Amino acid sequence: MSGTKKPHRKTIGLTDFISIPDAGISNIPCKVDTGADSCAIHCERARIREVDGEEYLVFKLLDKKHPLYSGQELKLKEFKEMKVKSSFGDFEYRYQVNLSFKISNKTYTAAFNLSNRRNMKYPALLGRKFLANKFIVDVSKRNTSERR
After folding, report:
1. Degrees (nearest 5) of the Cα angle 126, 129, 134?
2. Is residue 67 part of a domain?
3. Tens-digit pLDDT profile for the chain (148 aa)?
4. In a domain, 70, yes or no
5. How many domains does the chain have?
6. Is the pTM of this model over 0.70?
């Protein structure tokens, strides 16, 4: 054994809350989903806008009917269009962006697919690419972080 110490991994439950300061949104309910490859967040309308000859993805998180909706528009130059398999087994194209967010009083950055999650119980989902080597998931627990 080399004696290298494994990084401490925090235990997280089946559900929790995240905050996205850049969007002015706190305490978004999220599902921790080890079956999902990537993270996702509810976004009904994302569009590409050209500003001074450069393309930006412009979007608002959640929707006007959601109680946490801030109406704050995000404009990102870095984004991808990804072919994603939906929870229903269909393939569709979604925009993917890197978002900074807080959970358990710590700030992380992860790739989030922008998708319509209006009919889902949780507007945000944390997938295994983000969770790997950072968290241990204990499905018997819920909301292990402190809400702010």
Report:
1. 80
2. no
3. 455 666 678 889 899 999 999 999 999 999 999 888 899 999 988 999 998 899 999 999 999 999 999 999 999 999 999 888 766 778 888 999 999 999 988 999 999 999 988 888 999 999 999 999 898 888 888 888 766 5
4. no
5. 1
6. yes
The domain in which residue 110 lies consists of: 10-44+80-137
- Using alpha carbons, list the distances in angstroms from residue 20 to 53, 69, 83, 124, 139: 28, 12, 25, 11, 24
Provide the token pair at 92.
């569709």
Longest dimension (CA), the chain: 56
pLDDT value of residue 51: 86
d(C-alpha 104, C-alpha 79), whole Å: 26
Place of tokens 């507007």: 123
Spatial contact of 99 and 20, defined as CB atoms under 8 Å apart? yes
Beta bridge partners of 143: none
**Does residue 1 sit within a domain?**
no
Contacts of 51 (CB under 8 A, 6+ apart): 75
Residue at 22 is within a domain: yes
Helices (H) and strands (E) in the chain, counts: 1, 12
Locate 119 and state its tokens: 């009919």
d(CA 4, CA 31): 32
